[in-house]
Design brief:
This protein is of the alpha+beta class and 422 residues long. Helices cover 29% and strands 18% of the residues. It is built from 12 helices and 20 strands. The chain has a 6-stranded antiparallel β-sheet with strand order 12-11-20-19-16-17. A 4-stranded antiparallel β-sheet has the order 13-14-15-18. Helix 5 crosses helix 9. It starts with a strand and ends in a 10-residue tail after the last strand.
Amino acid sequence: MKVRKPPDSSSADFHKHLRILLRRNLEVDALVLPRAVLDEPYLGYVMERVNDSIPLAELVYPKRLTTNWHVATGGLRRRLRIAAQLARTIQQIHRNGLCYVDLSWQNVLVSSDPKQTFIKLIDADNLIVPGTSFAEVMGSPGFIAPEILKESRFPDHACDRWSLAVAIFHLLVLNHPFFGDEVLEGEPELEEMAYQGELPFIDSRDNNQNRSSAGLPLGRVLTRKLRELSRRAFENGVADPWARPSPEEWLIALLEAADQTALCPKCGATTYLPEMRGTPFVCDWCGQTSDRPIELGFFNVDPAIDNLDEDERKELIRNKKPHRLVLDEEQQRIIPTRLVSGNLEAIGNAALFGSTPNSNGDKVYGLKNLSQDTWKTKDAAGYEGTCDPGKKIWLSDQTLITFPSGIRARVRNPYPHMGGQG
């Protein structure tokens, strides 16, 4: 329940706003909407209780930043998937013609179970139609777009894009995008300048004056795409609000990043797996060198390929990079439907990864088909087969799986007993 101060002259508008939210069939999975509106003598609303949850702040502000704390709160992979859920939620809010306005650590709840990645956005009374004056708050410190602070304008989708970018960057790096060492150690006025975007971004291409030694190394937690999106948001996007990445751009990059993380068998942390085949898997957190895990490389269908001549087709195919999914038997066992269908919004699971010992005691790895479709397969020797619903396919190195959508997945298996080169 959320109860506000006793009604005043603006309460009638707020009451009307809440009742409109109640009537609208908003298609936003993670948004906690009002269930009922309170009447006088107080004004407020009743909302669903989110059990077994904690504020997102608990994944951002450690008492002491250590590897153990980072792993115990879910590590890099969990933070990437939480950030992806946040981007998806803001995307859905915008599709419904609304702005969230007040994104903050306290308004995002996550599971208290470090293995779970669901989120819930509360305080839905912040929702407004873009550019209108109803919002009673313009945001929370650190998340408010510079144009709101400088111009006292009404919030719009571009303001939400700024808040989203701040939340994603800060959640992953554990530092605000404008809090360089100069800000953290300097006069309080510098903090205000940082919030207004009047100082350089801490990862600026051209200006090193606001570099930061706080938080985590950027190269450890940000992929190349995430780093580029951050620069668009906090360099071009300071003066040009619509240069900021959209929620969908963040969603795609975050899912791709999470899928590329590998689990360290020693410390339990997750690290980006190097792309080059044969490059050792070294944990960024404890330094342990381990066997490379199995990967699937997904190649999407390109409609333009039919319009190209033979040389152009070969060039396109040669330069095309797959969407990589790193598999492990503890956390990343599921192949989501979005990867085999090519539909980012598809829900459900297409396959389950697992293993069984062979006669020599070595693990043999495979996928169980959880879908209703039959897949085509072709192994490294050219033998073709099928994998029907409910059946399994063994993941020998270089096996090619073709899904009904036309998407293909190539297996990278480093284990010599399954055709790999180690």
